[in-house]
Every structure is written in structure tokens, then in C-alpha cells.
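User: C-alpha cells in, sequence out, please.
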């Protein structure tokens, strides 16, 4: 099955429970994906390397290696969207799973309709990235050297990912079409200040010593490259674009789904906790303290925004 861009949509399902694995196959094939399903983490990593799927689901408690380790290994060789499915509900597990490279996190038992909504959101997010020229694809080939704008010190961004194995043809799948939720009212936002980011080169922007280039998807601090997941990069890019405008957790959830407006898909507490976990991991990688922030500050009870420039009023 191909999407609107003509690229095959493949899903790798890594789940040791046969009944849940069968349910996942039904949901994915109902959404138009070809599926490859395996029952342990080691086979799951190999399947992702071989098929380079659009989406991968990972159980956490599996024979061999667990879902956390599988996600880390997958992230070294693939840009597949990772959805973790687990019975674990502790906040630490959520942070660990997203920190290992997962994009989404659903707890069991999950509703098939909720998973389907997440799939639709992932596809919208991918299409948005493609139309913006960000280079996100359904089945990414090994990355070549990328040349972006000139950064301070004459540094140019270079890919972090190595070559992968050749991709065999994916299996045949069902032919359902994607269903997109209808739009509703606009997400309310806090007023923005008139502070502007410094532009570096043609597309990159700077906040203090933090530089982000949306075209090459490279982040630098003091000329040192910061390795972020796709979701962490998108959150940081959104906050930098918004400058001092506060972005709520619900707002950021919709941004990650590729939506600008409230839809029929509910933004729940689990979604907001996922944003908090992503922000925890993002701050850790930036070396930013939530109590004395340099880049991102929490507006208690509302959301997040960039800190004021040094010497500027809040």
C-alpha cells in the first residue's frame, strides 16, 4: 500500500503477546499499512533495519532485549516513528521510553480507535515535514552528508547516521485509506512579546548560544552538535519559532500531530505527561535546568516558552 506520495507504508510490530500482535496487525492494515510482525526485541531490531518502516510498535517486556534497548538500537539506524505499547504506567518508565527514542507511548489496554488516531496523526506530521522540506520520509535511505547554512566557526552540519542494510521489498498489505479527523476551534495561545531571534545563515536561528537549523535539523550549543530525537527537535523548533509566546502542553501535543486546530481526537492527561517527559529529556540534552533555565522556562500551570535573552526583560 502506498501513501499519497507514492511511498510504501510499512509497519513493524514487535510484540510477544500473540493476541495483541494480531490486534495491532488489524489496526495497521486497516490504516493501509503492510505489516511485519515479530515476537521479540532482537528480531524486531533486525526487521526495522531490513524494512525501514514508517512506523514501529515496541512492547517493553519482551524476551531477549526489552523495548528500551530495542528503541536505542533502532534509533542508531532508522528514523522510523516508534510507538511504545506497555502495561507500565510509572512516570520514570515514560521518561525512559521517550528518552530511548520513542515518539509515542500508549499504555495497555489501549483502544484500537486511539491507536488509529495516533497513526493518522503520524502520517499528517510526516506529510507536513515533507511539504516543509524537512526530509522526513516513510522509508528513509541511508543519510548522506548534508550541507546547511554556515554556522559560527565555519562548521557545517553532517549526518550522524551510518549506512544501513539494503531494504528488501515489503510484504503486500491491505488497501484502506487514511481518515483525518475534522477541525474544530482554534487552540488558544498566550500573547507573544516582540523579542526576535537572531538569524544565522539562511535558515538557522539562535537563542543565546543555542542554534537550530530547521532545514538540516541540526542543533548546536557553542558549536557542539546536540543529538535530539525527531520529537525533541520538533518541540524545540516550535518553542524557538514561538519565542516568548507560551505554548501549552495541549498545544504542543497538537503540533506533534501536525494539527493547528483542536480536532475530535481528545488531548488527554497521558498526552500531557508525554510532553512533560519529552521536555525533561530535551532539557537534559541541552544541559538546561528547569529551576534556573537558560533556554526553556516553565510557565507554571500554563506551558513552556523560551527564556528572555540575557539582559532583556521577561
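Assistant: Sequence out:
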Amino acid at each position: 500500500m502506498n501513501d499519497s506520495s507514492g511511498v510504501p507504508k510499512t509497519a513493524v510490530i514487535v510484540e510477544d503477546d500473540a493476541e495483541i500482535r494480531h490486534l495491532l496487525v488489524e489496526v495497521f492494515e486497516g490504516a493501509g499499512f503492510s505489516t511485519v510482525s515479530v515476537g521479540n526485541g532482537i528480531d524486531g531490531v533486525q526487521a526495522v533495519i531490513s524494512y525501514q518502516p514508517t512506523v514501529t510498535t515496541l512492547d517493553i517486556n519482551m524476551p531477549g532485549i526489552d523495548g528500551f534497548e530495542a528503541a536505542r538500537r533502532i534509533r542508531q539506524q532508522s528514523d522510523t516513528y516508534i510507538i511504545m505499547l506497555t502495561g507500565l504506567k510509572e512516570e520514570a518508565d515514560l521518561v525512559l521510553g521517550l528518552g530511548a527514542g520513542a515518539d509515542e507511548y500508549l499504555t495497555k489496554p489501549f483502544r484500537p480507535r486511539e491507536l488509529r488516531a495516533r497513526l493518522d496523526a503520524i502520517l499528517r506530521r510526516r506529510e507536513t515535514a515533507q511539504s516543509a522540506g524537512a526530509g522526513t520520509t516513510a522509508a528513509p535511505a541511508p543519510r548522506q552528508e548534508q550541507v546547511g547554512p554556515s554556522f559560527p566557526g565555519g562548521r557545517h552540519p553532517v549526518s550522524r547516521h551510518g549506512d544501513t542494510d539494503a531494504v528488501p521489498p515489503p510484504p503486500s498489505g491491505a488497501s484502506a485509506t487514511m481518515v483525518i479527523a475534522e477541525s474544530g476551534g482554534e487552540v488558544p495561545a498566550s500573547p507573544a512579546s516582540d523579542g526576535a531571534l537572531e538569524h544565522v545563515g539562511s535558515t538557522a536561528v539562535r537563542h543565546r548560544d543555542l542554534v537550530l537549523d530547521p532545514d538540516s535539523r541540526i542543533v548546536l550549543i557553542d558549536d557542539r552538535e546536540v543529538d535530539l530525537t525527531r520529537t525533541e527537535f520538533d518541540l524545540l523548533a516550535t518553542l524557538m519559532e514561538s519565542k516568548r509566546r507560551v505554548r501549552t502542553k495541549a498545544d504542543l501535543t497538537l503540533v506533534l500531530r501536525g494539527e493547528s486546530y483542536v480536532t475530535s481526537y481528545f488531548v488527554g492527561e497521558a498526552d500531557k505527561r508525554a510532553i512533560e517527559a519529552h521536555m525533561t529529556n530535551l532539557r537534559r540534552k541541552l544541559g538546561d535546568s528547569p529551576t534556573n533555565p537558560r533556554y526553556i522556562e516553565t510557565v507554571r500551570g500554563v506551558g513552556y516558552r523560551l527564556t528572555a535573552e540575557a539582559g532583556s526583560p521577561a
